[in-house]
Write a structure and sequence with these properties.
Shape: globular
Distance between the termini: 24 Å
Number of domains: 2
Strand order of the largest sheet: 16-15-14-13-9-12-11-10-17-18
Order of helices and strands: EEEHEHEHEHEHEHEHHHEEEEEEHEHHEE
Strand content: 15-25%
Helix content: 25-40%
Structural class: alpha/beta
CATH architecture of the largest domain: 3-Layer(aba) Sandwich
Radius of gyration: 22 Å
Amino acid sequence: MNQNSKGEIAMTEMNNMKRRDFVKSAVAGGVALNLMGMRGPASARQLGANDRINTAHVGVGGQGTGLLRQVVKRAEGEGGVKVVAVCDLYTRRMNRAKELAGLDDSGTYHDYRELLQRDDIDVVFIATPDHWHAPIAIAAMKSGRDIYLEKPMTRTVEEAKAVYEASIKYNRIHQGGASGASSPWCWEARSAIADGLIGKVIWAQTSYSRNNPNGEWNWSIDKDAGPTGSGDDFVDWKMWLGSAKKRDWSPDRFFRFRKFWDYSGGIATDLMYHRLTPLHIAWGEGFPKRAVGTGGNWFCSNIIDPTTQKPDVREVPDTFILSADYWAGHSVNIPSSMANDTGVPTIIRGNKADLYEERRSIRIVPQSPFREEFKKKYGKEEMIIETQQREDHMGNFFACVRSREQPTLNALTAYQVMCTIGMSVESYKSARHLFFDEKKQKVTTKPFKEMFGWVS
């Protein structure tokens, strides 16, 4: 881990990138960019209230294809949107997306930079491996497009800050891909907390666990695919690696990227981002003060990969526990495992009551010192609040593209969530506590008095 004399983490993996390929400089209120030799941006269309929104899709693997299907279904149903271009570095996926969207070859691309030169694109859906999120997102916004950026926002805290700043500088709509941000329960919880129903927020818990005996993320491998493949089997491996360490072709890394630090943060970035986002909305956003990641490969280090029949070579842990404190004065704990699917319920604890997420409602249960007060005030020993149906996550995005209002998972909220997620990953990798200086917007290894009164 790179750090300066003040203990500030120097944008860990970002320091290993060639900055001319990513961010030339970051300044308050915006990001100045020189993205991989990209030409001047195409002009963004000015949409009228009844104009059709044209979409482009970069990254059409499993998740990207799912998003593409949603847009195609919406286009065939209520209308108002149309897919005009798809992009993927794996020709088979690109051609599959072309057929799904009903495009001809003029709507297909291997290089997102060429796609962004089109003048008929309004929004860009980005569902690539995590290490490509920031460069593509910033390039798309710089070219005048709004973005739907799959979770996690980025791979690192520093990249998330750059994406957030770009959204401000270029005045673009950012919808994060964690659809839980549009879940009715967290908005009902937000109102309940704002109304004082649970008192002061103290700490929260949630989790996202699975149990895959063959090892999570050991997805199928197309044996003929690769950089020497022809036709549908071609993969632009050099481009796919991007800013990551240069390596020989690895089917395991390409098809199962979530197992490796260069492209992912494992459980934290893939799954915990889903669970932490609604909590941020419920308690009112905010930046973390401290984050810690613990866990290990307690099961997967002993399994045989069912495809290769060799020992699993993952780098990320199969069990991960995130703990964080926030500047607003509360904590969160998220234990998750890919080798045991028994998780914990989602609970937000206040000094006066606990708030439980339930299927179609939230439940408020007062703490023992406040039971009589609660019963006297509300006429019941606990409160069930039914949730109200909300606009779906993608519908919210398209509505905000037209209205220019902020969507449910706007860039600031997505950045704040990524701070906690990214810091926990770096904490695990470096075996140390990490802190966030809210004023300087920097991650540091050294706490200071304003964080904890007892620190000298």
